[in-house]
Structure formats: C-alpha cells, structure tokens
Amino acid sequence: xxxxxxxxxxxxxxxxxxxxxxxxxxxxxxxxxxxxxxxxxxxxxxxxxxxxxxxxxxxxxxxxxxxxxxxxxxxxxxxxxxxxxxxxxxxxxxxxxxxxxxxxxxxxxxxxxxxxxxxxxxxxxxxxxxxxxxxxxxxxxxxxxxxxxxxxxxxxxxxxxxxxxxxxxxxxxxxxxxxxxxxxxxxxxxxxxxxxxxxxxxxxxxxxxxxxxxxxxxxxxxxxxxxxxxxxxxxxxxxxxxxxxxxxxxxxxxxxxxxxxxxxxxxxxxxxxxxxxxxxxxxxxxxxxxxxxxxxxxxxxxxxxxxxxxxxxxxxxxxxxxxxxxxxxxxxxxxxxxxxxxxxxxxxxxxxxxxxxxxxxxxxxxxxxxxxxx
Amino acid sequence: xxxxxxxxxxxxxxxxxxxxxxxxxxxxxxxxxxxxxxxxxxxxxxxxxxxxxxxxxxxxxxxxxxxxxxxxxxxxxxxxxxxxxxxxxxxxxxxxxxxxxxxxxxxxxxxxxxxxxxxxxxxxxxxxxxxxxxxxxxxxxxxxxxxxxxxxxxxxxxxxxxxxxxxxxxxxxxxxxxxxxxxxxxxxxxxxxxxxxxxxxxxxxxxxxxxxxxxxxxxxxxxxxxxxxxxxxxxxxxxxxxxxxxxxxxxxxxxxxxxxxxxxxxxxxxxxxxxxxxxxxxxxxxxxxxxxxxxxxxxxxxxxxxxxxxxxxxxxxxxxxxxxxxxxxxxxxxxxxxxxxxxxxxxxxxxxxxxxxxxxxxxxxxxxxxxxxxxxxxxxxxxxxxxxxxx
Lengths: 374, 391
Prior knowledge:
heterodimer, A: mainly alpha, MetI-like fold, 2 domains, 69% helix, B: 391 residues, alpha+beta, globular
C-alpha cells in the first residue's frame, strides 16, 4: 500500500524579524518613544537641540572672527565669538608677564613635567619607581632652578610677580600634588596610628582644613604666614598661596589614602608581620604600594578638584589662567561686547578639556583595577 | 628576674617605650613650631603696630554694606558687620540648599530615565558642570550676563511685574494687609486637615484595603479654604511692584545681581554633584528592588518614589550632607563678585581696615569649623540610627 507521507526536505526561507523588534526602529521605540510621556520628552529634546545647536555653531564658527589685529572687527560683528582676541592674547594667557626671551624655560619645564606625568599615570610603564623619584624629588628642584633662574648657571632671575597664565595654574596644581601626596600619606598613616598623640594631631589637622573654605586657607597663608616667621624670612608672594594649597590638598589627599588603607584586608598586615617586617618596611613595601594603587582614581579626582581650585589663588594676588583672562578682557584695545563672553567660554573649554580628560583616565583606571581584583 | 631573659630584648625595642618617645618628639616638635610662630607673631605685630586683642570688635566700622538683614549703617561696629556677613552667608545657604537639592534630584532621576535622549542631556549637564571651575561660572553669570544687561530705563520686563536690569532682579513684594491673620489661619487649618485626612486614609487602607483620594482632598482643602477666606475677607496682601522713578527702579523686592549670580552659580554647580550622588545611590540598590516594584504593578514614577528612593536615601544622605557643607563653604567665593558674605566683609574689609589678621581669621575659620563639625556630628548620629541592621 502506498503510503502518502510528506517529508519536508528544505526549510522555509527565514522571515525577516518583525520591523519593531530589531534594529534602529526597535531601539528608538524602546529608548525614545516607549510611552506618551517619553515621546513628548524626546520631541522636546529634539526641539531644544534643533533650536540652539545652529545658533551655537553660528556663534562659535561661522559668524566668529578668527583673525584681527584689534577689537574693531569684533565690535562690528557682534553676533559671533571673537577668537582673534584669544589668539592675540595667547602668549599672555600662557606665560603672564614672564620675559619673552626666557619663555623657553617654561616650555622645557612643562615638557619634562608632562613626560613624567605620563610615565607615572601609564599603569604598565616600566620602572615607575624611578619615575616617582624623578617626579617627586628631582623635578621640583629642577623646575625651581629653571623657572626662577640662577645667576650661577647664567639664567637671569625672573621675579615671581611676573609669573602668570596657564603656566602658573599648572605649576600650582603640580606643586599641590607633589607636596601634598607625601604629606597626605603621612597624615593618613598618622590617622590610623596606634599612638594617641599622633592620631590626635593628624585628625585635628585633617578636620580643621576640611572644615573651612579654601579661600580662608589662602587668606591665612597670605596674611598670617608672614607674621609667623621672622621678618627677614617673609615668604614670596607666590609661595604663600602655594603653601596654602599644599596644606589644603594634603588634608583631602589624606582622606583619599585612608580609604585605600582601610580597604586592604588585615591579612596583608598580618602576613607582613609574620615575615618579620617592622612598621617602616611593612608600610613601605607591603601596605602603601597596594593602597596607593587602589586610590589612583581618587587621587586623580582630587587632582581635578585641585586644578579647578587653583582659580582661587588670584584672591591673594597671584595671576593664574583665569586671572590672566580677566586682565586680558580689560585691555581697551580689544574692548567690545563679545570679548568677555568669548574669553570666559574659552577658559571654560580649557578647564573642561583638562578636567574631563583626567576624569576619563580615572574612570578607565578604576575599570582596570576592578578587573584585577575580581 | 632571670638575667638571661632580661637580656633577650633591650628596652630600646619595647613598643611602648618607642611609642612614648615618638609621641613626645611629635608633641615637642608641634610645641616648638607653635611657640616660634607665636613668638614671631608678637614681635611682628608689635613692630607693625597691629592690635593684639579683640578691642576692634566695638569700634565703628565706617563702611557701607548694600545687603543687610539686620540694622546696619556705616556708624555700626565691626562686631555688627560680622553678624551682617554671617547672616548673609546663612541666607545663601538657606536659599541654595533646597534649590540645589530639587534640581539635583530632578537631573539625577533624568540621568536614570529610560529615555535615552533625556539621560544624555542630563549626562552632558553633569559633565559640563563638574569639569568647570565654580569661579568661572560665577564670573560668567555675574560679569558676562547680569552686569551686561541693559540699565534700569531699558529694563527687561515680564508683564510689567518682574523687571531685570543690571542692578538686579525686581520681583513684586507682597505687603501684608490686616486680613492676613485669617488667611494664615485658613492655610494652617487646611494643612492640618489634609494631614489628618491622610492619616485616617492610611489607617483605613491598612485595615480594609480601600484607597481614598487623599492627594485630591489635600489639594481641594489647601486650595479651597484660603480661596474661601480671600473671597469673604479680601486679599491677604497687596503686591508692591517696582516702578521707574528717575534713573532707577523704586519699590518691589530687589535681588542684587551679586546675589542672583551667586545663587544661580552655586545651585547649578552643586546640582550636578547632587545628581551624580542620586544616580550612584539608586544604581547601588539591587535591581531586584525596582523589578519587584514593577511586579507589584507600580509604574516607574511610583516605584521610584515609594521603593527605590527611600532605600537609596541611606546611601545618598552622607555625601548629600557633604554637598550641603560645600555650598556653605563655596559661598565664600562671593569675595570675587562682591556679594557681602562673611569672608568678603569680615576676612576682607574688616581685616584690611583693622589689620588684626590673626583675630579676624581665627573668628572666620571658627565659624565655618563649628558649622562643619556640627553637621558631621549630626551625620554620625544619622548613620548609626539608620545603618542597615545585621550588616
């Protein structure tokens, strides 16, 4: 008997997935138009961008003045930024009143500093210990000699009153980190010490500094420091805010490092002690290398805050980048209604690029470290 | 004691002895530092004729302050100027903290929104604010925006009621009339009734499961009762609107540009940090919590309000408090735009006039320290009370 069986040998051609469940359309449906409220929000956002973005582009690019020798062109075209002003003032914004013939010294110091920072922040770089030694010990001395000058080496002395601009902002931040990190480590160790007097002194310093605004620390450094030392040692006008920033930043650094110390397990201490290490070698060889690596993201975030706080040193008469910008804006040759906005927007872009870059780096390191600890 | 045992370790290696030696050295070092600082300070202050005591406190200040919450004139004392500055600092804190919290929570929740565009907008906002110095924001709002507005004669006016010019923002000032007593009474009664109804509705829901429209009732009560009073006894206050007289606006509630810039800058800046704290706090909560809320049929808004945020508050509160402290501390940036806060008046003008740097700085820092330490103490109490039990 014939059996009437049907065996299918080839499968039906696959149908495309439903339009609304894959691809761009589906993504838009779940992420942009999932509900009436969401749709309204999306349309509102698109309207906002559609309204403001063209104006912003026109202001910053197409209607902007890119080259001019004075403010006349910018006064004529008030619907765009006056980048020519920033370009014309660029040297002043970078170096302040540092003598033109000596500015190569600033460039050299900045280049060396940048190289050393890359060395330290590149987490797989070889010989980072040497990098740290160079950055924290050799570099400050070299930078001081180069920037200030030395008659012995034939470099003319440049008075700190002439220093200014981006270079002073960077200098302040780097001085802050170079001196505050070791100090902060000491304070953090002191705060976790078993000796009551050491602990009390550390806690008092840290809580005092963290409890008052940075401006009052700057005022204190500026007004009180000269009173507390013999008259012939009266500190330089730029040295005072630097002392203030070191003190301020050390307290915050200490709390950051303390976090790292606390996150190490007891086993690390016990293992080090079982090996017969005393306090100093245990701390230097076992505890700190681990704790400091853990808090690199925190230290970088602290540095971002420090960099933004350097804008405040102008309150005691130092010329940082923002103050240099304020001075440049007041130049009557360039006076015009668009100058101030242009200047501040440029300063904003400068700080943003710097800080955002560091923040990205810190987030990246955090991910790398988290991977290693899993 | 057995001599062999005594020789095994020298007293030099005794931990306790070493500890004592280190601590003595530290204390001696600090004492020497402090001693020499005081010694030099006394010599230097004598040489420069700087007053040593606090006698300046009762001297006539001789300068004007354009914003004072208590009576003050240039004939008042330095002590009075201190209180004016302190109150102005407090004023900024009182205005900024609620506004920054509100804006911060809104942006933080927007950052978590399932709407991709909205979440990106919030991300751009927080990144921009967190990576720009506060001082730059303040200078921008003060110099480039508020000070560049037209003069009083060309004020920007909103409906002839609100005016904005380079001397500040002029809002209508409510001036109370006699019937205000009835109005306030009506508002208080309405609020009390609404709370009472809500409590009753809660209990009824717990008992029977039946829900009552307590929100609607509250709106009806708080809106209706005062409206009834206004209808019977007339408006509780009249508005004093600013008017142009000569070259300036007179009347109304004037908010000086220094204050407007400071409030605006501080609120927008701090809100970004608060938004990040809210986001981190919510994300730290196990996802099961919002899934469970969804499984119970709560939509996103309700699940946020009733399930997620209350639990996340435990994580959010400590960093939020330190942001509040930051607002108070950052209000000292007022110096740069001339808002008369504690630092600007006291550590600025008074210090320069009296030259009593040590005393003035000690008082100023003590004020901030007291605020910070009090808040830290309160936070510790909060943490011990609300810490998760059994963890």
